[in-house]
Amino acid sequence: FDSSKYLKQILPFPVGASVNPRLLGENTSYRGVVESEFSSLTAENHMKMALIHPESDRFDFTKGDEIVAFAKKNKSRVHGHTLVWHNQTAQWMKDFQGDQQAWENLLKNHIQTIVKHYQGQIAGWDVVNEAFLDDGSLRPSIWADHIPDYLAKCFVWAHEADPQVLLFYNDYGQDGKPKKMEAILNMVQDFKKRQIPIDGLGLQMHISIQSKKEEIKQIIEQSTATGLRIHFSEVDIAVNPKNNPDFVLDDTILQTQSDKFQWLFSSFGAIPRKQQYGITFWNVGDKDSWLRGYFKRPKEYPLLFDENYQRKSAYQELYQRL
Ligand code: XIL
């Protein structure tokens, strides 16, 4: 294991992490790992609707701009996450009253203002995030409820604002949920038929050591068969998915997790080169993971770096096998 080299130097595709600008600013270890290991950055939260567009007539690009500036200094790519989602919408959006035209104006303005702001600085956008339920139906949301055919419209609006930027549909948990996967594939087919622009599919890959490889393999193959670019967009591998309070991390579990990381990377490597958009981890060290913060699962260790930003055994083994 040659510890003087970094992931981004040995991988033939972009490898990234979602980042928290507060940690980038105040934690030098966190910042150091981000600078040296990763070639692509995503804002974990700060480009989401509520944060970037807190009032109807006010956008707040401060934190997003910080991440973009940091990435530029570090010669990293930036992936935009996410223009439209049912979660983390602003209160004023939830309270909004208006007819279909008014809703369309709101969403079009939201998308186009952001896309134009970051034109030339962001490689690709998650245009819509998590629009389908497990049964393949369209997820109810303020957008779906007020704007017929909103998925297609969002992609068209984004493309109008910046014809160069890559447009992704991003979702989670397609493995073992054939109806959900089918809905996504149908959307892609429909878009192609109607010439609605779409460039890629984001597979979030919030998986666990128990996730079934055959099921994941299948959704990778199905997604790849569309010919679109593929992004493993939010990778983490939970070791204690049931949040067992008595969980103890041991070498066997670490080894299982390590094997899964290696398998995931080699599965990505098997995708045709020109379809490989990259792999993004959902934050950096175990303690930064949303599984700890958002889901309050203190005994979870889903990433490649430990609490002190040291490379875990999974990192070292992955590295050796790359
Ligand atoms: C999560 C963030 O990690 C948390 O900090 C936040 O509180 C909630 O959102 N799918 C996504 C991401 O597309 O935006 C989510 O991020 C995790 C699930």
Automatic annotation (TrEMBL):
Might you give the EC number(s) for this enzyme?
3.2.1.8
User: What protein does this entry describe?
Assistant: Beta-xylanase
Keyword tags: Carbohydrate metabolism, Glycosidase, Hydrolase, Polysaccharide degradation, Signal, Xylan degradation
Q: Which InterPro entries match?
A: GH, GH10, GH10_dom
Species for this entry: Aquirufa aurantiipilula
The entry's family comment says: Belongs to the glycosyl hydrolase 10 (cellulase F) family.
Highest taxon of source: Bacteria
Q: Reaction(s) catalyzed by this protein?
A: Endohydrolysis of (1->4)-beta-D-xylosidic linkages in xylans
The keyword Signal belongs to this UniProt entry's keyword annotation:
yes
Q: List residues of the GH10 domain.
A: 8-321
For this protein, the record's Gene3D superfamilies field holds: Glycosidases
